[in-house]
Please model this.
Amino acid sequence: MTRDLDLVVFGATGFTGKLVADYIARSGDRPRWAIAGRNKDKLEALGLGVPILVADAQDRTALDAITTRTKVVCTTVGPYAKYGNELVAACTEAGTHYCDLAGEVQWMRRMIDTHDARARETGARIVHTCGFDSIPSDMGTWALQQEMIKTFGKPATKITALFGESSGAVSGGTVASGMETAREGGVDREVRRVLGNPYALDPDPHADLPPAPDESSIGWESHLKMFTVPFLMAGINTRVVRRAHALAGFPWGKGFVYREVMSAPGSVRGLVRAVAITGALGGLAFAMKRPKLRAQLAKRAPKPGEGPSPERRARGHWKVRLVGELEDRHLVYIAADEHGDPGYASTAKMLGESALCLARDPLTSPGGVTTPSVAMGQALLDRLRRAGLTFSVAG
Ligand SMILES: NC(=O)c1ccc[n+]([C@@H]2O[C@H](COP(=O)([O-])OP(=O)(O)OC[C@H]3O[C@@H](n4cnc5c(N)ncnc54)[C@H](OP(=O)(O)O)[C@@H]3O)[C@@H](O)[C@H]2O)c1
Model:
């Protein structure tokens, strides 16, 4: 099959899609690319001067016409649990690589169950979570383990990722995706079961692996001397890191433990902050489980197409500290972006580089429903560093 395009950005009219399209347009890789979406006028108004492809997310015939002429589809059409099924199916059948910003664990589980085996046959790499969820966690853990092996001759048996210093805001699509997950969880016991399983995305979610409950209270990180509190996105990122480890054949041992928390300074002020964050998260979790309160939250939140201003995005930044432990030794690793808010400016770099990596780099990983580190490993790490992100041992 001949492919006249390297990559297509699907959803280029959306808040995040515009940022990703802009990132690709400025890329030194100069790919042969196109933008796609459901509204031709909106796509033309972007003025990018690249081919325009029109397809509704539910129109399989129109999606097939796109997926058969490109090597990669990069999609920001979300909530994925609402709009994502047909595109994953089309990419899988066409042997076309795919990357997205999904954070809906229950939907990713469905994609694994429905498409993983077929994608292995066609060679399509279906890579979810190529944004702030879950590249810092997945690539950070993978890169830290390479450093552990270099330094101590063995991988860490336990890694704790501490999400602390960051500044950003959310967009309408992100709110809609969170609401969709909460709605599904509210009406479907099986979805609640999936969301509550720490190994929900593993090839075998019921394998005999160590207990890995999500953090629910304030703790203390003794190497960094910081308070730890539950992290909202841990329920996504930890599942992705565990899937990556399982897909790689458990190279760090079946007893490997991955935890994810937020950090607060180890001072009295830090403790006050930790208590406030834990309380706020408890309140949010309570509200998200109740349809009426959820509707009130949705009214006050950004709507689809809306998100943080350019100034807010430019002021944004993020930093994750990953502590790798091996017996009585440890290594601290930093994943960070000082120039861009996590969810949008920085996510546009992460998703854009993932798409370019899938399109351009000589990867050897097999097809399947996979993760950024398993699909792209060192090639993506090199790209992210060149894009200005930090992945390095703490100095
Ligand atoms: N993991 C992360 O770090 C991260 C960060 C940012 C965003 N996200 C995720 O990315 C997704 C997008 O967020 P956003 O704020 O950019 O959303 P958004 O502004 O609402 O954009 C959604 C896009 O989807 C398109 N769309 C909606 N329904 C469609 C359909 N039936 N067929 C074709 N296209 C359709 C919209 O097209 P129109 O313009 O024609 O309406 C628009 O281009 C969300 O799922 C969000 O959770 C994740």
About this structure: The chain has a mean pLDDT of 95. Residues 268-288 form the longest helix (21 residues). Residues 5-131+345-393 form a domain with the Rossmann fold fold (CATH 3.40.50.720).
